[in-house]
Structures are given as C-alpha cells and as structure tokens.
Amino acid sequence: MAQLAASQVAVSVPVGSELSTRRSVFKTHRIAFHDKPQAAFLSLDLKTKNAWFRNRQIICQSVQQASVPKVAVSPLNLEDAEEPPLNTHKPKEPYTATIVSVERLVGPKAPGETCHIVIDHGGNVPYWEGQSYGVIPPGENPKKPGTPNNVRLYSIASTRYGDNFDGKTASLCVRRAVFYDPDTGKEDPSKNGVCSNFLCNSKPGDKIKITGPSGKIMLLPEDNPNATHIMIATGTGVAPFRGYLRRMFMESVPTFKFNGLAWLFLGVANTDSLLYDDEFSKYLKDYPENFRYDRALSREQKSKNGGKMYVQDKIEEYSDEIFQLLDGGAHIYFCGLKGMMPGIQETLKRVAEQRGESWEEKLSQLKKNKQWHVEVY
C-alpha cells in the first residue's frame, strides 16, 4: 500500500465482483506506487475511454488529508538532462518505431474520428512534455516522385515516460483527415490526409518512421511547482496538455511535485467528441484545489449571446479571473487549429479594453515574460 502520513487513516476495501466482470475491457500493467510494488494497474481500453482502478484494493483516506497514490515511473535518468532533446532523428535518418495500439477515442455521435496511437520507440527517441514527433508516412511524395513523403508533425500526448510509465513509448492524438467532395457530398479518398489515415489505419506491430523530437515553445516550465498553468485547446490540440496533466497528477516524479493550479479549457463539437474526458474528470475529483476543467461544446451549449459555445466564449466567462492570474505570473498555452486564435485574440482584446488596458501592451509583456505559449497548425 502506498505510504501515508501518520495522521492519515487508510482502510483497504476489497473490490467486489463488479470489477471482475469488467476485466475484459482492461489492459493490465505491473506498476509500483511511490516505488513500492503493488497490484496490477488496470488501464481502460480507450474504446471504452480511460479510467483508473487497481484490481486488489481501493485506498480510503481521511477527508481532511487525503493523498492520492501516484504511479512510479522509470527510468528516472530521464530527469537528468538540463536541456530538452532536439532533433535526435532527422528526416533523412528517421527512427523506425513500432505501433503498439490504435484506439478510437470518440463516441459514435462525434463528427469525424480521432484515435489514440501508442508508439514503441524503445527508449531511443526521448522527449519532454510539450514536444512533437515527426511522422513520415510510407509511399512517395506525389509532388516529388522518387522521394519520401513529407514529415508531418504531431504533438506528443504522453509524458516522457509514456503510457506504460517505462520511458519506451510515446502517444499521439490524431484526427483522421477525410475529404468530402462539396458537389457530391461523397468521400474522395484520393484527397484524404495521407499521414492521419496511415496512423489511424495502423495495426499493432506495424512499423512507423519518426523524427524529432522538436519544439521548445510548449515545454512545461517546472522552476516553480506552485505556478498557475492555463491551457486552452480545441480538439486534438489537447495532446500536450494530457502530457502536462499526467506529469502533474498521475506520475510520481521525485524532481517535480506540482502544487499549483492547472486549468484546462477544451473546445469540441459535442459530448461524444471529448478527448480523455474520464482522465481529466478523475483529476478534478482527486485534486479539486489544483485542477479546473471547463468544456466548450459548440453543438450542445449556448454562449451568453445565444450563439454556439466556442472555447473563446468559455474563456470570456472567466475573463476577470484569467486576467488576474496572468497579472500574477500565470502561464497560458494555446494548442489546436490555427483558426482558433483570431476569435480568442478578439475576445481577450475586448476584455482588456473593458478593463481599461491595452491588449497589445499586455500581450507584449506576456511574451516578454515567457508566459505566452502558442502552437497551432
């Protein structure tokens, strides 16, 4: 059992037959809590969405001093480097990795398909949270016959330890790009996204050429464990934030004990389109003082003006608080389709003016202070 403070009360409650009847949808991993071996960790197959359970015990602790056990990770020498790894594998010499799993993340009513893809790199392509991998899909570049396809960049959706906590895998969150002919309304496979369809169609054991890692703008600053991090994502732009949050709330990392505030805004079309929602909801339950989670569902919710609820509308609801947090040094991150930024910028500018501030000056100061982080595509 995980270590508890002397003032805490721990009671082991056997999990009954309800869990055993669900075992078929779980994948089993052997892990340890606070470096002490424990029972198997069960991660829900992503077709049924993520959840956390342990198969032998549930720890019930005193309400006043509850402490949620975290997962031990290895190898801890991944914490030793002072600078992030950059472009250890270039397009001319990519690393050949192996697909571990491809799971559909979204429900039947979601527009389009988004997949969670786990890649085994054998520990040979290490990365930090917030970085990206390049993927070179098989086949020739149609614009340059005889040459490989171009590299496509994908934000990594896991921590440096990967979903198996052993430093040997990385996860991607990929939406399948499908083209529909505007005249006929039918799918035109010849214009579908080459790389996204390759990834979403992959099977365990398939080989994949990866490059990188790349990127420094979205690295998670860890110099202040009490800092505030405001994360704004649309769709698959949630990928780097999943990595941040797993590092903050799921993993036991000796060199990083997060005690600040993480606030996630996620914009998607509807409830079935939510990504990693069970994972985020668990953090909300376990760390109510350190995590906030706001969803903007454009096809199900209305903004205060009666229109569709987009992520910028949800931001506006909390604008005063967000500006106060930024004034106090909070970091703010944006990730998703580039079309998200104009609406967000307009909203922030309008709020700044209502507060009697110049948005241009404020934005300049945020960038100067390295509080402003944007990765859009």
Automatic annotation (TrEMBL):
Report the PROSITE patterns cross-referenced here. FAD_FR (PS51384)
User: Where's it mainly located?
Assistant: plastid
What processes in GO biological process is this protein linked to? photosynthesis
Return the PANTHER family for the record: PTHR43314
Q: In what residue span(s) does the FAD-binding FR-type domain sit?
A: 92-220
Q: Which GO terms describe its cellular component?
A: chloroplast
Reaction(s) catalysed (UniProt annotation): 2 reduced [2Fe-2S]-[ferredoxin] + NADP(+) + H(+) = 2 oxidized [2Fe-2S]-[ferredoxin] + NADPH
Key word Transport present: yes
The main enzyme category here is oxidoreductase
Q: Which residues form a coiled coil?
A: none
- Write the record's keywords in alphabetical order, separated by commas: Chloroplast, Electron transport, FAD, Flavoprotein, NADP, Oxidoreductase, Photosynthesis, Plastid, Transit peptide, Transport
The enzyme's E.C. designation: 1.18.1.2
Pfam families registered for this protein in UniProt: NAD_binding_1 (PF00175)
Task: Note whether Flavoprotein occurs among the keywords.
Answer: yes
What InterPro entries has UniProt attached to this entry? FAD-bd_FR_type, Flavoprot_Pyr_Nucl_cyt_Rdtase, FNR, FNR_nucleotide-bd, FNR_plant_Cyanobacteria, OxRdtase_FAD/NAD-bd, Riboflavin_synthase-like_b-brl
Residues annotated for NADP(+) binding in this entry:
S155, R175, T236, S298, R299, K308, G336, L337, E375
Tell me, what is one Gene Ontology molecular-function annotation carried by this entry? ferredoxin-NADP+ reductase activity
Signal peptide positions are: none
Q: Which domain of life is it from?
A: Eukaryota
Give the family, as the similarity comment puts it: Belongs to the ferredoxin--NADP reductase type 1 family.
Provide the protein name.
Ferredoxin--NADP reductase, chloroplastic
SUPFAM superfamilies for this protein: Ferredoxin reductase-like, C-terminal NADP-linked domain, Riboflavin synthase domain-like
The entry's localization annotation reads: Plastid, Chloroplast
Cofactor(s) for this UniProt protein: FAD
